[in-house]
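Title: Prediction job returns without error message
Component: structure pipeline
Severity: low
Priority: P3
Assignee: unassigned

Description:
Job completed but the reporter wants confirmation the result is attached to the right record. Sequence as submitted:
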Amino acid sequence: MKFDLHAGYATMVLLGLGLAFVFPLTKGFRYDADKRRYWILQGITLVAALAGAKFAVLMGDGLWPLQPFDNWTALLSSGRSIVGALLFGFLAAEAAKPLLRYDIPPNDRFAMILPFSLGTGRLGCLLAGCCRGIPWDGMWAVTYSDGIPRHPAPLYEMLFDFAMGFVLIALWRRKILYGRLFALFLLCYGLFRFESEFWRETSKAFGGLSAYQWMSLAMALAGGAALWLRRREPAHWQAWRESRST
């Protein structure tokens, strides 16, 4: 029986998404009101992430605005970029927090499960042959239907994601960087993705770099800025924790 690559890709991506939803993200919340506020913010984040994922593809693959783009139907049915999703989702969440008077610290549980979710999805990319690496004839090269040996770019990212996930778990268990694990992931993933784009078959049309690389730099900058600005636990985080511990 022939293995259906597209079904395998869809299965791994759905499994990765399922991990994020099955994991008890709000286990540390004592009050239903806090859970509702958290999920409202997550909803805003999700909408922005979906838009950002498509916008990144528009620039990265469609090369807009360097060249005209009018195939919007193909864009809507095509893939999505995790770079755009992470960057725009994070920026939207940070912009929404003061408007919602949101004082709950960022959810470290979500930060821990996210790399495993992304890594599982990358296994689907490896099976389906998307997100391909540049031609390379090394000992662990992969070959797809075009017969060209390539860097296994999705495998590199999968290994990075899983390793990063275990690092975040270790930090969480030691109560290190409370409320800042997602910012740390953004910083590290942004730097990794910037470098790994040199091994990926993407157009480097924006000043010698791909649109994904510029967004990766923006992501790393955003994560680094969040870590620096919150190097001391913000007062409203402390107030929220104290009010929920009594």
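Comment from assignee: result matches the submitted record. The beta strands are 142-143, 149-150.
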